[in-house]
Specification:
Blueprint: E1 5-9, E2 14-18, H1 22-51, H2 55-99, H3 107-110, H4 129-169, E3 183-184, E4 189-192, E5 199-202, E6 205-208, E7 214-216, E8 221-227, E9 236-243, E10 246-256, E11 263-264, E12 269-273, E13 283-290, E14 293-295, H5 307-317
Antiparallel strand pairs: 1-2, 3-6, 4-5, 6-13, 7-12, 8-9, 8-11, 9-10, 10-12, 10-13, 13-14
Length: 329
């Protein structure tokens, strides 16, 4: 049964029944029902809007998830690369560089600045900006460290080439061939001088050989002196400057075959054994200097002797019966 509505008249103090036409009655019902339906529809829309993603949004979220997975993989690879690079740096500093007498690269250079986050302004303002900027900073660090490491290897290659050159200059052979050597004379050290008859330092070794025996340069270098002046009793002599602090002296020659300023190679013939100067027999007086300090030449014969021959040579050169000089005939 439909409810009736009444209107109060204050003048007559009575209620009057409100009559609606058929059309008004229909419209009223429609408005009432549609309002409720509209309200319900709005509620459902809001719930759906906040809980159900649109197809495009679902696609974006899926792509974003894939990007994050790729980011994690890339971050893992970068970390592995950083670990490998750290190991390379460690070997470089404490194995390779010491071999070639190079100091380790300071960490302040290896970890030098790479710039602040302001260089990545184009990556700011995104949902994952922090991740992207962090990744780029990590890559910039690795790039900088790789550059420093590459420069270190360039330096080592240069030192290797220089080392090869240095090794060819070090006096590393005996200046008289084994087949031509008669015996060892006086060794390096204090000895009774055969002519002056008092004890004094003998700064080289004496290698006995026939007059005219070939004398070879012990290493690459430049002839610093070649003359027949007295020079402390050396007589006819040759001095070679090998660079790198090395110098060799060849005394008592019968003849020198090089001139001052001439470049020579290890094994080049520079003179002939003789008996000139303060000498009692035909032999070669041979000296080696390192940084202006005389050193024992027998320690520089390693290029033309086997280990067994070297040990035998040390034994022979230390034997007392090899220290006497033959008198001039």
């Amino acid at each position: 049964m439909r409810k009736s509505k009444y209107h109060f008249n204050p003048e007559t103090l009575s209620f009057k029944k409100v009559e609606f036409s058929f059309l008004e009655d229909i419209l009223k019902k429609l408005v009432s029902q549609s309002g409720i339906s509209l309200l319900i529809g709005i509620v459902f829309f809001l719930i759906a809007f906040n809980t159900i993603d649109s197809p495009s949004l679902q696609q974006l979220k899926s792509e974003n998830k894939k990007i994050l997975i790729k980011y994690d993989l890339l971050q893992s690879k970068l970390q592995k690369s950083a670990t490998v690079l750290a190991e390379i740096q460690n070997r470089d500093d404490f194995k390779y560089r010491p071999i070639f007498e190079a100091d380790p690269i300071p960490q302040s250079i290896r970890n030098a600045g790479y710039g602040g986050t302001e260089q990545f302004t184009e990556l700011q303002g995104y949902e994952n900006s922090e991740l992207l900027i962090g990744l780029n900073i990590h890559m910039s660090k690795l790039s900088k460290q790789l550059y420093v490491q590459s420069k270190s290897y360039d330096e080592l290659v240069k030192r290797i080439k220089e080392k090869d050159k240095m090794l060819s200059c070090i006096p590393a052979i005996r200046p008289i061939a084994s087949k031509d050597l008669i015996r060892f004379g006086s060794p390096f050290g204090m000895r009774m001088h055969p002519i002056l008859k008092f004890v004094r330092m003998h700064y080289g070794v004496d290698l006995s050989a026939e007059t005219g025996t070939k004398v070879y340069a012990a290493g690459d270098g430049v002839v610093q002196r070649a003359d027949a002046a007295w020079h402390g009793g050396l007589g006819t002599n040759v001095i070679i400057n090998h660079g790198y602090g090395y110098e060799t002296v060849y005394g008592h020659l019968s003849k020198f075959l090089v001139k001052e300023g001439q470049r020579v190679k290890r094994g080049d013939v520079i003179g002939l054994v003789g008996n000139t100067g303060l000498s009692t027999s035909s032999h070669l007086h041979y000296e080696v200097k390192k940084n202006d300090t005389h050193v024992n030449p027998v320690n520089y014969y390693y290029n033309d002797l086997s280990d067994e021959e070297y040990d035998k040579m040390i034994e022979n050169s230390s034997s007392e019966d090899t220290h006497v000089f033959e008198e001039k005939k």
